[in-house]
Amino acid sequence: PAAFSPELVRGDFPILHRTVNGHPLVWLDNGATTQKPRQVIEAVAGFYGAANSNIHRGAHTMAREATEAYEGGRAAVARFLGAPSPENIVFVRGTTEAVNLVAQTWGRANLGPGDDILVPVLEHHSNIVPWQLIAKETRARVVPVPLEPDGRIDLDAYADLLSMRTQLVAVSQASNVLGTVPPVKEMTALAHRYGAKVLVDGAQAVAHFPVDVQDLDADFYAFSGHKLFAPTGIGALYVKPEVLAGMAPWQGGGNMIESVDFGRTTFAPVPHLMEAGTGHISGVVGMLAALNWLTSFDRDAIAAYETSLMAYAQQALATVPGLEVLGSAPDRIAVLTFTLAGHDPAEIADWLDRDGIAVRAGHHCAQPALAHYGLESAARASLALYNTSQEVDQLVASLQRLQQAA
Ligand code: PMP
Fold first, then answer.
1. Which ligand 1 atom is nearest residue 232's CA?
2. 51 alpha carbon to ligand 1 midpoint, in Å?
3. How far is the CA of 177 from the centre of ligand 1 (A)?
4. Does the annotation count 338 as an active-site position?
5. How many structural domains is the chain composed of?
6. Annotated catalytic residue: which of 257, 365, 375, 397?
7. Is residue 88 very low, low, confident or very high in pLDDT (cuts 50, 70, 90)?
8. Domain membership of residue 165 as a residue range
9. Rg for the chain (alpha carbons), in Å?
10. In ligand 1, which atom is closest to the CA atom of 94?
11. CA of residue 182 to ligand 1 center, whole Å
12. Residue 127, SS3 per DSSP
């Protein structure tokens, strides 16, 4: 792999060289979405400039090329996740669509009255609400798994809540608000003892550390391209082979059929069965470029760098009077959600924006996790591989000025 350094990779991101409100951009909103390297931008532009075609349709050269690119993207995602085969990868719009797909297909077929779906309190709304919707229809129950004060999942409570009624555990591999990285592999092994399936939300994990779905033994694994340096509107769902084989189609339409007749319609094999209609072809092209770009580096070096940057940020933020970081779980990604005494989160974000620093303020689509800390809203700085300690210094200096101005 190529040597990794944040200074080196910054050169690949044109947007990191712009200014905001007269200051060089400091992008600390990576939990919401990551910026795109020129390799991704050029791949998408190259597709529309020289290779645009629909796929799987018509035997002309460009349709064949587009099909190869699309299926090449699927194979790359399979390799990236350690999936046994490209057939286990379904392209979706993102994590949200992946979870809804599983709820509406697998959930509808497998949930019934008295069944439990276990969902930790730290989950993103997109890993709560789809379960509430299908639970209402099937008369199953969504059971929250409580948190420890430091933001870890209460594993004793989890073990107690698991039972033969548990059909599914839906858990994030990394929390977007507390940064917590739960022991998903151990949680999955425990769930499997009760015959429950496990869906892992990898939205915040994939950009930060290598993932192996077979090692996790996940039944479902979802992520969004846009949090992984790829375009918006494209994501992937991994489904374990034996689970995928039994799944009913989701949406109906073109591409997911073998033959259609008013008497009887037969279906295409998985994963195409799950991909009705024209897919986001340029999105897959961009995703392939993003995966090629990211995996060209030593990913362990990236993870180690992010861990050290996170430690630096924690220490630096501790010097700001009245600042409190939410969650102190030892295993975590570089997400710092914080409050600042005397200032509401929207005011903090607005102040930082005037210095060109982008952070998010609000409930981060994780209201139950914030409620665990008695909060409705907080500010969040989320770091990526291209962030530097100088940027952390700028964040801290700006927050200190805000406290002095008060
Ligand atoms: N899960 C987690 C943990 C997330 O952070 C997000 C995005 N903030 C999602 C799911 C939803 O992702 P998307 O909006 O791309 O579907």
1. 15
2. 31
3. 11
4. no
5. 2
6. 365
7. very high
8. 43-295
9. 22
10. 16
11. 17
12. helix
Q: Which of 295, 325, 350 is the last residue of a domain?
A: 295
Residue 56's pLDDT is 77
- The answer on 113 and 242 residing in a single domain is yes
303: tokens are 């993870």
- DSSP annotation string for 257-319: EEE--SS--EEPPTTGGG--S---HHHHHHHHHHHHHHHTB-HHHHHHHHHHHHHHHHHHHTT
**Whether 282 and 313 share a structural domain:** no
Whether 98 is covered by a domain: the verdict is yes
pLDDT of amino acid 38: 98
Residue 1 has pLDDT above 90, yes or no: no
The tens digit of pLDDT for each residue in 5-57 reads 999 999 999 999 999 999 999 999 999 999 999 999 999 999 999 999 999 76
Pocket of ligand 1 (CB under 6 A): 94-96, 124, 126-127, 172, 176, 201, 203-204, 224, 365
SS3 assignment, position 56: coil
Model confidence at 406: pLDDT above 80:
no
> Residue 143 pLDDT > 90, yes or no?
yes
Q: Which of 30, 92, 93, 96 to mutate to test the pocket of ligand 1 (most atoms within 8 A of CB)?
A: 96
By alpha-carbon position, which residue is closest to atom 8 of ligand 1? 32
3-state DSSP assignment of residue 331: coil
Residue 58 has pLDDT above 90, yes or no: no
Please state the rounded mean pLDDT for residues 282-304: 97
Domain boundary among 261, 295, 329: 295
- CA-364 nearest atom, ligand 1: 8
Among 33-37, 211-215, 253-257, the least confident range:
253-257
For atom 14 of ligand 1, the residue with the nearest CA is 96
pTM above 0.90, yes or no: yes
Give pLDDT tens digits for 363-401: 999 999 999 999 999 999 999 999 999 999 999 999 999
CATH code of 95's domain = 3.40.640.10
For 185, the 3-state DSSP assignment is helix
Q: Is residue 247 part of a domain?
A: yes
**CATH number of the domain that residue 325 is part of:** 3.90.1150.10
Position 32, amino acid: A
Write phi, then psi, for 26 (nearest 5 degrees).
-115, 100
